Amino acid sequence: MDAATEVTRSLQGLSSELTSRIPRLLEAMRTVGAGLDLHVTLDRIAQTAAELADARYAAIGIIDETREGLSDFVTYGVTAQQHQRIGALPDGHKGLLGALIHDPKPLRLADLGQDPRSAGFPPGHPPMRTFLGVPIQVQGEIFGNLYLTEKRGGGQFSEEDLHMVRVLAAEAGIAIGNARMHAATRQRERWIDGSVAVTTELLAGSDVDDALAVVAEQAQRLAESAAGIVLLPDGEGGLEIVAVSADDPTGIMGTHIPPDSPVAEQLLAGEPVFVDDSATDPRMVTAIAPRFGPSMMLPLKSGGRVLGTLTIPRNRGARPYTAAERTLATQFAAQAALALVLADAQRDRERLAVLEDRDRIARDLHDLVIQRLFATGMMLESAYRKSTVPEVAQGVGKAVDELDVTIQEIRTAIFALQQSPAEAPSGLRTRVLREIGTAAVPLGFQPSANFIGPVDSRVGELTGKNLIAALREALSNAFRHAQASRIEVVVDATITLPDGSEGVRLTVTDDGIGIPPGGRRSGLKNLARRAESLGGSSTYGPGLGEGGSGTKVTWEAPL
Fold this sequence. Notes:
Elements: H1 3-9, H2 16-20, H3 22-32, H4 38-52, E1 55-63, E2 70-76, H5 80-86, H6 95-102, E3 107-109, E4 131-138, E5 141-151, H7 159-202, H8 208-223, E6 227-233, E7 239-246, E8 256-257, H9 262-268, E9 273-275, E10 292-302, E11 305-315, H10 323-386, H11 390-418, H12 428-443, E12 448-452, H13 455-458, H14 461-482, E13 487-496, E14 502-510, H15 522-532, E15 537-542, E16 551-558
Parallel strand pairs: 12-13
Antiparallel strand pairs: 1-2, 1-5, 3-4, 4-5, 6-7, 6-11, 7-8, 9-10, 10-11, 13-14, 14-16, 15-16
Helix pairs in contact: 1-7, 3-4, 3-7, 4-7, 7-8, 7-10, 8-10, 10-11, 12-14, 14-15
Keywords: Kinase, Transferase, Two-component regulatory system
Region (Disordered): 534-559
Domain GAF: 37-186, 207-350
């Protein structure tokens, strides 16, 4: 027997007035039970209760997890202008609403202002005198309280009103239970789908920076938070933010958590940290902490190894994370860490395959191409000595010189192919040339490179690392989509950004087919996101081809 049936039976033998209102009550119960969206269900309960008891105003106070206050407050009858004048919604920590949290019993008052538990109303609050309150139980636990005020016609709420609202509250508990189960199921499905999306994206071959950005983006979306942030160990015992997805990413990238922070110690030990308010928690010592409120800091841990930290903060004043959200986010972080490990292993295999292919190409160039060019040169040398026509001798001599230059260029390419990436110097110019050399193999030609200004000395490490990632993305897009035969790369460290600060600009221009209308823009979005996280920008336009065909990508950021 459900609670609604039990309460309905208790109505037997009551007044004929109450009996005459039974059809209206049944219709109200049917209305309340329709639908599975929790917020829509709460709005419908408040409105239906007010109509059933002829109340001007209705509200539902939802008790928070601590059982000491209210986590939400749903109203009916209060206009948007009145809400604005009232200001903050009641938190249930004091007054009559707080008393009903600790003593959840039906309550009927002729004048709530005369009750000793009343704390009065804030300025701008509409006048309320008569009062009716009934607890709402969901699966045997108190979910909240249903409040009705201001009986229409100036009278008081009757005993019949109380019985009717109790029946409605019992049915509301069932409807809320169903809606909560539906919401919890949908929420789990969303987090599972998000984990699958992360795993799929990471195993699709993204580089490390893009992989971390995917984790940050999915975490922000799933948690409905202000930001998704990934931190990695900085080599000094602390943590550094290396990937950001945020409504306002300015100033977040590159932020450090010092090694002496209790948060860093706990996270690197593989323990999660949950913060109620980042702006006021003394453990949050970074400059960006005052921008956020409730936050989850979850270690990215797999096989006992802590890879980094996933931080998911909400805006100041936002609702705190529930226990269910904390559990789902922790599971997501564990799945993301496993996907990162698998993706890293896959990239190692691909890198090994590329190195083996480069070694094979280098051997073929040395053993076959150079030997044949050398033999051809010897034949031309013999023809040059035997030729009696000056014009022919001059042309043959020029061809021999060109062959010598070609052989030297091929030997340089062989050296570059055989060189491990770890052996190269770490200057930005060298890293740019290395990326271009690596891209030349799948492209089938060597992109040109031009440097303006003291690139190595002016461009900082963080900007340089992101510039290299942007160059890699742009060259990859040109190889996969542009069908280009010519690519020009320019790095200019002498520019001035729109805000007046000094910056660096990377341009990658090709003569390919351009970007078709309706084509995918994921690569361009990655470039823009990376630039914006540093306070820069990324744009694209016409390229090197005839009539402006092809694509020119411009990426710039502060030095």
